[in-house]
Amino acid sequence: MALQPSLRALIVAGNPNAPHTLDVFLDYVCPFSARMANGIQNILRPKFEDGGEYEGKAKVVFRLQVQPWHSASTLTHEAGLAVLRASPEHFWPFSLALFKHQDEYFDIPTANLTPLQIRAKLIDLAASVIPFGDVEKVKDLLALKGTPNGGTGVTDDLKYNIKFARQNSIHVSPTCLWDGLVAGEISSGWGEEEWTRFLKTRVHF
């Protein structure tokens, strides 16, 4: 599937030029998305990268799926995009850290926090993952612009991801596309056996 060049770091597993693409729509505050992210890290990355049996054959693209019924979802996705812009090589490690701490951004824990306080928490989390010199870049990207409704430095990137999901009629997270078509059989609960069976029938050498 197409990907805006500036967001190339959304390719979180495999060679960017690999012929097969697994698009995975994930929400940072969705528990099932966290399970899927762990599957990408522990099962798919070893298969798609150096020495893996599908090295150069398939890649995984993390598609940010904002679910606005969770009030902090937009803010967490903005933070992910800010890290992507400031320190692209740390986007996936930050994403894994955010999934690990996602319960801190659920509805009840954030109910009495302002958006600025939530952003501050997210910046602190980013600071635990990215180089010190990039933390200020993240802060700048998450700062509100001068106009009353101007958004942040990553608003356009957020719009891109939301529009991409909408035009593909993505409703829930996680949702997976294989080479552009919804693969409804994929589950966040899949382990090594299920992924092995799926890839054996879908990857053509």
Automatic annotation (TrEMBL):
Coiled coil spans: none
Protein name: Thioredoxin-like fold domain-containing protein
InterPro entries membership: Thioredoxin-like_fold, Thioredoxin-like_sf
Pfam families cross-referenced by the UniProt entry: Thioredoxin_4
Domain (Thioredoxin-like fold): residue spans on this chain: 11-105
Cited PANTHER family: ACR183CP (PTHR33875:SF2), OS09G0542200 PROTEIN (PTHR33875)
Source organism superkingdom: Eukaryota
